[in-house]
Structure formats: structure tokens, C-alpha cells
Amino acid sequence: MAVVPERICLSEEFVLQLHGARDPTATKTRSYYSTIQKLQIAVGKFQGKYAFLNRFKYTLGADQLTAFGEQQMINSGIVFYNRYKALAKQRTPFIRASGQDRVVESAWNFSQGFHQAKTADRTPDENYPHSILVIPEGEGYNNTLDHGLCTEFEDAVAYSSIGSEAQQTFLATFIPSVINRLNRDIPSANLTALDIVNLFDLCPFTTVASPSGVVSPFCFLFSLDEWKHYNYYQSLGKYYGYGAGNPLGPTQGVGYVNELIARLSGEAVTDHTTVNHTLDDSNDTFPLGEALYVDISHDNDMTSIFSALGLYNSTGPLSNTSIQSPDATGGYSAAWTVPFAGRAYFEKMACAGVDEELVRIVINNRVVPIERCGADRLGRCTLAKFVQSMNFATAGGRWDMCFAPK
Prior knowledge:
This protein is an alpha/beta fold.
């Protein structure tokens, strides 16, 4: 676990947090239901490790935070307070959330956890319930926590299909053997590649549907090697869909990076991409000089933000024909970067014996060195070099490619 370095005086702390565990999306939940219904109609009686399907009822909803996800976010608030207690004891975080229900609920749960830890520390929390700034999602709204403005990225097949195409290419390298095995085990099932992916997906979704996170029996339908391939399949979707593998992926995170620069430097936001200037030009809705900031977002947006920061610059283009371990990908993995309730800490610190303030980034308890600014052995750069290294973001990324000429 990445600890706060000794003899450090933290001056500001930011957390970019993914919402807690949720139900599948509406489209996915219909697809999962169809697979289960198909299986249960085709098979008279399931045997062995498939026997649980005899009594399984599909009850997953769509898009909403689960009870397990709520607790994840409460825990995140507790961890945040305890990790940065020196700052948090006498302060209230400034909290923003993107406008989708599960994100807003996650923000309230995080706030609850922070409050719980603070009161357990015998410290008054006079500003509780904490204020939460909700940034609307949807057409017509600039929102650095939710992509949607760059029409070429959203709608043009040249960009919007890169992730799914990489996944389909890789799927063909390992899914046929899984299809054959399961169809041998369940002779009348006639499972397809889509059915198999759905069964993989049902492992995490039915696990987090349990309030205590009891591991689902779907998880035991596949071997460890098959799970490694599925994990890489998901990484390909994020990398080529929203990360550095997509020419416009990192650009979707530029607005947030420019907000981060503004907060770190204490200067007004300069950005012409996704920043909502109605909010960010007001000290009430985008205050500078606070010690604690909390932003709650989505996994795809966080992937773009990490790419805009250049955190995995040493990661070469991911192979879509053979699996690569996180060691081989420079630490990049969707499971390592954006699991449910995943988080990135941006630490600004003033250190004894160092003239300049330092910046460090910690993603899910792993220090991720900021390569372009000459990070030290603890993964820290000076604030000035950090800002200089963010030239991709400060130049607007490739925002000029976002809108096709009319």
C-alpha cells in the first residue's frame, strides 16, 4: 500500500473516485436475462457446478448502485479521512459529482463515510451533511466528469468502434475453446460467444448484488487462465475505447486535467474543451485554495483522464492477438485502474528541506510515477515540472479533431 511519505506536510489532497458497484446497464441486463432464459429453457436439469442454475432467478436491475456499492463508497470516505487526517480533521471536502443517479448517490455515501470517520475521531463535523455540487449530464452541458461533447469521438465509427473491434479480434483467440467446453458440459445449451461473455459478466454483477459481496457461483464456471483472458479483454475495451489506444481518447480527459492544474496552482482554469465555465469561473462552484477536493465520476472518463495525464506513457499499444500481463503493459490494466469504487489520489505536498511543492499520484494504492516530469523514487515531481509536463492538456489535446466540418 502506498503510504504518505514520512516528514511530509500535505497541503492539498484531491481524490477522483469511481462510483460504487452497480447493476448492469439497461442494455446489458436485457442481454443477460436472455442468456439465462435461453439456458433454462434449453436444459432440463443442470448438473455439477451448473446445478445452481436450476433455481437461479434473474433479479438484477439496471444502472443503479447496489447495497454493496453503497458500502464501498462509505468505506472510501472512511479511508480518505483516515489517510489524510492531518488535513481532514479541521476541514470539509469540496465534493462534486457527475449527474447520473448512481454517481450522486456514491457522493453522498462517500460523504457519510467521511463524516463517520471524523466523528469516530471525536472531531465535530459541523458542516455535515456536506454540500455536493452535481454537474448535469447530457446534451448541452459541459462536464469534465462525463464525456459526450466531442461528436467525432462519440459518433464517428473511425473512433467509436476502435475498442469493440480490438475486443472482438482478441475474443476470437480464446473464446472458441470456452464455447466448446461449456457446450460439452451442457450439451443442449448451444451457447454462443455472446452468451459466454454474458456468463463471464454475471460473475462480478451477481457478486456485487450480494450486500456482503458473496462470490457468485458464476465465477466458478471458468478456469483461472480463462479469467486472465477475460480480464485482458476488458482492458482492451478501456484502452482502445477511452485511453491512449484511441486517437481521441485522452482528449476526453483534458478538461479535468486543466481543472486539476488550476487547483494545484491556485489559478483560474484555462480550457476550451469540456470545462463548464459557468461553474468553474465562480469561486462558489469552483473554489481555489481548498485543502480537500472530491470528484465522483465514471470508469470510462477516468480512463481518459489518466491518459490525458500521461500516466501510462511507457505502455505500448496493447496486442489484440495475445494476452499481456500488467508487468508487460507498464502497470496498465482495467482491473488495476478502474474497478468499482476505484480511486486516484492527487497529493500536493510541502516537504522539509525541499524548496518547491511536490505532486504525487496514487491509483488504488499504487504510486504511478509521472514519467514526463522526472519523478523521484517516491513518484513525486515538483509542481512546476508537473504543470510543464501537462502540455498535451494545456494545449487542448486534439479537440480540433472533435467536430467534422459541416
